[in-house]
Q: What sequence folds into this?
């Protein structure tokens, strides 16, 4: 149609897809290699739905969940919640000053680089590894080891986030505080802290939500909480009891998530900042990635 | 300063004190006190802890002297961990794509589907990965299959949630154009929605792969394959010098993957 009327404009050339195809081939090769060499018996895959169905049947349908275990399960879940809370408080208290040291605009370039590397190093260890390799040897089996492991890991994640939030502040109030003769600590207190506190408290709450899941898991290695009773119930084949425990984990986790989510929403929108959106908060690098429009296929 | 030309506006009234802050503070202190106390909580006693640091000193000494001759025996398990992470990321992200479209207000075919899918996703996300692994080990036995399945569910939860939120925020113009052009639901999703969210989808997939590397290191503790299995065995026999070899290896692997992923992202831009 148009070619007669507008001979000047040619259809733009299609951008090269070589890179994208190369990446796809690379991924396909990687996946093919992994699937071909992993030690999974292909014959066992068809048994998967049956096995799951059997477990579900024994947990909930055969005799119903073990309701008499509801109270002990709730007590164990409460312990998990307390482990998560204490861990989050430890992480919050330690990470706040470390975050200031890690922020380039507040501390010096060298100090912030060193601090960032330390925080990255801490973050690389999952809570369970910290519990096994450091805190169970020190504090013995029990919830204290779990809380300390969660606390240390949280220092890594929260410190990094705190530093990033501080790097994004408006320099105006800082200059103003300095101009009226504030000492360095006063400048941080009145120029920086009020700007970042709402977002940082929201991060703490979000971290608490994540730590509940971590605390529920730590019991598997003997660091207290509901994971211990669940792994006991499963390894002794007491599926109705395991069913009750899983039910308690799901309900308690969702309830705390909703409560904490609404508090976060209030803190952030009350401060006039941007809307909180789930997981993206935990992974600002993810937001950057998406915002930067990476990986255009 | 200059009080003569006092034509300036009056100082604005101080806002009324909010009760949210003191109430929040009191709640925070009360919960923290209860959680820390011996009677209601976990009983964290700093004095006792300081004493036991010296008791744990011997173990920490062994941890600081890794037994490197153990290293070759960990490599197959390390490889298995990597394979589990790769397979689970691909399968999980594949499943998450349709699940995410059903969980977004914009692309869900009807309200019941939307609500059911959302509810299912929040249940999936409420269960931690290792608890999945425990259940799958009970269902299909010890081995990497149980671990892969646990990671798949974990990935579906993460990617579907993130992606459905991205879909919620898209520009609906192309969608309307597609509908006006007579496209059916699948076609609109394919040509109007997918191109808008594809970069995010790829980013989320890379992100879950990184998460998987971390998660699959520990998931094996339940017997679901990978290095976690070996870590837990050595821990149970108190072979601290072997435990520390595995911990160092994990550290290196996690760092390596992170740097490769950063490099990949730079290349892709």
A:
């Amino acid at each position: 149609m148009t070619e007669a009327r507008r001979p000047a404009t040619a259809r733009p050339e299609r951008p090269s897809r070589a890179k994208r195809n190369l990446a796809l081939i690379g991924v396909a090769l990687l996946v093919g290699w992994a699937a071909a060499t992993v030690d999974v018996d292909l014959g066992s895959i068809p048994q998967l739905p049956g096995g799951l169905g059997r477990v579900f049947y024994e947990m909930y349908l055969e005799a119903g969940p073990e309701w008499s275990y509801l109270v002990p399960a709730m007590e164990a879940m409460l312990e998990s919640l307390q482990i998560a809370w204490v861990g989050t408080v430890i992480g919050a208290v330690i990470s706040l000053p470390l975050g200031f040291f890690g922020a380039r605009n507040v501390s010096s370039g060298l100090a912030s680089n060193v601090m960032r590397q330390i925080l990255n190093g801490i973050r690389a260890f999952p809570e369970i590894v910290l519990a096994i390799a450091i805190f169970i040897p020190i504090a013995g089996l029990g919830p204290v080891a779990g809380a300390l492991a969660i606390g240390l890991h949280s220092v890594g994640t929260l410190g990094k986030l705190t530093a990033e939030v501080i790097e994004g502040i408006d320099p105006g109030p800082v200059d103003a505080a300095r101009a009226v003769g504030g000492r360095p600590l006063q400048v941080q207190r009145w120029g920086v802290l009020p700007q970042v506190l709402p977002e940082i408290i929201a991060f703490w709450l979000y971290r608490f939500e994540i730590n509940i899941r971590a605390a529920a898991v730590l019991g598997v290695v003997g660091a207290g909480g509901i994971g211990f009773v669940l792994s006991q119930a499963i390894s002794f084949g007491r599926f109705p009891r395991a069913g009750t425990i899983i039910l308690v984990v799901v309900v308690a986790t969702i309830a705390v998530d909703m409560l904490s989510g609404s508090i976060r929403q209030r803190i952030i929108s009350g401060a006039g900042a941007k809307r909180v959106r789930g997981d993206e908060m935990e992974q600002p690098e993810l937001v950057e990635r998406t915002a930067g429009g990476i990986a255009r296929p | 300063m200059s009080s003569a030309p006092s034509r300036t506006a009056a100082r604005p009234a101080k806002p009324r004190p909010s009760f949210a802050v003191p109430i929040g503070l009191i709640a925070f202190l009360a919960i923290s006190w209860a959680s820390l106390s011996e009677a209601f909580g976990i009983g964290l006693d700093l004095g006792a802890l300081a004493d036991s640091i010296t008791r744990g000193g011997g173990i920490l000494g062994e941890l600081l002297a890794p037994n490197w001759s153990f290293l070759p025996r960990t490599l197959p398990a390390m490889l298995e961990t990597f394979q589990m992470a790769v397979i689970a990321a691909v399968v999980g992200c594949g499943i998450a794509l349709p699940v995410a479209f059903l969980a977004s207000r914009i692309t869900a075919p009807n309200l019941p589907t939307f609500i059911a899918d959302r509810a299912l996703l929040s249940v999936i996300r409420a269960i931690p990965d290792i608890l999945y692994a425990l259940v799958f080990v009970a269902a299909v036995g010890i081995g990497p299959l149980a671990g892969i399945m646990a990671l798949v569910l974990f990935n579906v939860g993460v990617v579907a949630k993130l992606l459905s939120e991205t879909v919620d925020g898209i520009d609906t113009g192309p969608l309307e154009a597609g509908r006006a052009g007579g496209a059916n639901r699948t076609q609109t999703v394919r040509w109007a929605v997918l191109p808008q969210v594809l970069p995010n989808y790829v980013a989320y997939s890379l992100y879950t792969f990184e998460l998987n590397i971390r998660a699959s290191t520990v998931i094996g503790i339940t017997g679901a394959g990978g290095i976690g299995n070996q870590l837990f065995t050595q821990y149970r026999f108190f072979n601290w010098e072997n435990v520390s070899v595995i911990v160092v290896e994990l550290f290196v692997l996690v760092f390596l993957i992170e740097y490769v992923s950063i490099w990949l992202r730079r290349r892709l831009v």
